[in-house]
Amino acid sequence: xxxxxxxxxxxxxxxxxxxxxxxxxxxxxxxxxxxxxxxxxxxxxxxxxxxxxxxxxxxxxxxxxxxxxxxxxxxxxxxxxxxxxxxxxxxxxxxxxxxxxxxxxxxxxxxxxxxxxxxxxxxxxxxxxxxxxxxxxxxxxxxxxxxxxxxxxxxxxxxxxxxxxxxxxxxxxxxxxxxxxxxxxxxxxxxxxxxxxxxxxxxxxxxxxxxxxxxxxxxxxxxxxxxxxxxxxxxxxxxxxxxxxxxxxxxxxxxxxxxxxxxxxxxxxxxxxxxxxxxxxxxxxxxxxxxxxxxxxxxxxxxxxxxxxxxxxxxxxxxxxxxxxxxxxxxxxxxxxxxxxxxxxxxxxxxxxxxxxxxxxxxxxxxxxxxxxxxxxxxxxxxxxxxxxxxxxxxxxxxxxxxxxxxxxxxxxxxxxxxxxxxxxxxxxxxxxxxxxxxxxxxxxxxxxxxxxxxxxxxxxxxxxxxxxxxxxxxxxxxxxxxxxxxxxxxxxxxxxxxxxxxxxx
Length: 506
Ligand SMILES: Nc1ncnc2c1ncn2[C@@H]1O[C@H](COP(=O)(O)OP(=O)(O)OP(=O)(O)O)[C@@H](O)[C@H]1O
Ligand SMILES: O=c1[nH]c(=O)c2[nH+]cn([C@@H]3O[C@H](COP(=O)(O)O)[C@@H](O)[C@H]3O)c2[nH]1
Ligand SMILES: NC(=O)CC[C@H](N)C(=O)O
Ligand SMILES: [Mg+2]
Prior knowledge:
Layout: E1 2-6, H1 12-21, E2 26-30, H2 35-40, E3 45-48, E4 74-77, H3 79-87, E5 91-107, E6 120-133, E7 139-143, E8 151-154, E9 159-162, H4 174-185, H5 197-209, E10 213-217, H6 222-235, E11 239-245, H7 253-264, E12 269-273, H8 275-282, H9 288-308, E13 313-317, H10 322-327, E14 352-354, H11 362-371, H12 376-379, E15 393-394, H13 399-418, E16 427-433, E17 437-441, E18 444-457, E19 465-466, H14 471-484, E20 488-493
Parallel strand pairs: 1-2, 1-3, 3-4, 4-9, 10-11, 10-13, 11-12, 13-14, 15-16, 18-20
Antiparallel strand pairs: 5-6, 5-7, 7-8, 8-9, 16-18, 17-18, 18-19
Helix pairs in contact: 5-6, 6-11, 8-9, 13-14
């Protein structure tokens, strides 16, 4: 087995998942797990994750130096590499030119880690610090145009470091590099087999809920639909689904979701019209975290009210994924944004949560959904965030802005689908920043909002790249939005990857 030590990196759980995908068992442990405890697990290798801190800062998390003397190979990733460098006599500093997102890596020496991979490859990075001098005895194996030490190794001591992230999908040869560590450096054998997620989840839900009743927060997205199906398998008739229209949905979305679900799923569904109360509570609010907390709390209050209508309904099923959990912040991981269903939950709640997908990423959920026989259209539906358009209006949410954004988004969706791009994109949507700019339309001056087009590719939302949409498609979207949506006089395109951007603007 492989121990992954968590320094609070966004991708720490993803490292453990990738190792398991290579059919080696792997466990994520806090970085301050005592070395003795790690030794008792008898790992064949140890991976140090990335993290938000800078290794040279006072109080930054470290490891017991004995870890490097266990005779077990160690791979440091990003913060993990920087920590290894610093603790073993190298030098780490903040760099002038930071790297976030795509970088072109040049392999200088293939060594063990890059064995069998090309001399030049695209990697995904996310760092503001870098190793300026490798520790004595280490060989530098890769660089990028701006960072001279992007990977190093000291195979005779079993020590390896990469400044980029082999665990994310956008790193072209990431899986090969991880496999080289597992199979060449650690000598692991690909023998571990995963447990069946569906069987395991259904049993776990049965144990948790027993004979009580549950309601499921159902959004029309693939996560909550999959969670609902799993819970339905476990407790059958004792499940009622609740769909909340909070007034932050897209054009005609409520009708479409309710209609499709009633037609296809055959589970009882309650449709709650909560538009007024959400919009009332959001009035005057501009801070993104405040919006998220309001939406998170209000959702729960609606669900509590609905549960009171059903005898012995003590559980709330949500389609929470691991990406929602990590971005909301953990003991070691920074809070990037409070997802409404995790970090946005109120402190006091009447209902106990049932979250069968909490440890999974979206691409794993899509596999489960397909296994459960869900329609393709639902399996490949683009994600839509629970707080909806509230986090796509940058500034205060007003009825007027919601209407503008809805209409612009409908045009964008229409064109994306017509061009055959819907399935190829992770998400495509419109954002309305509440700033105004000057334009000229029909020889008259305008002073109106811009609409920003955001379209990205991703597998799991942990990293994303901006989609290279054809110019003629962008032109049609831009023309139609300006011509058809009053209140908009400019269209812009967001060309930021994640990192450094996130997919949503708030
Ligand atoms: N309008 C809504 N009504 C009821 N529950 C909701 C609503 N929006 C979100 N939720 C709950 O919040 C959870 C998280 O939302 P999220 O958008 O991440 O998942 P999803 O909507 O199920 O899938 P997707 O990510 O594909 O949109 C959902 O799984 C669902 O339980
Ligand atoms: O249900 C949700 N509640 C939320 O509060 C929330 N915030 C972001 N998202 C979705 O999560 C994915 C990653 O988002 P970001 O790159 O913007 O952090 C993307 O798919 C986002 O659309 C949310 N989903
Ligand atoms: N992704 C990481 O591990 C980042 C490490 C460190 N915080 C940096 O900025 O360089
Ligand atoms: Mg959703």
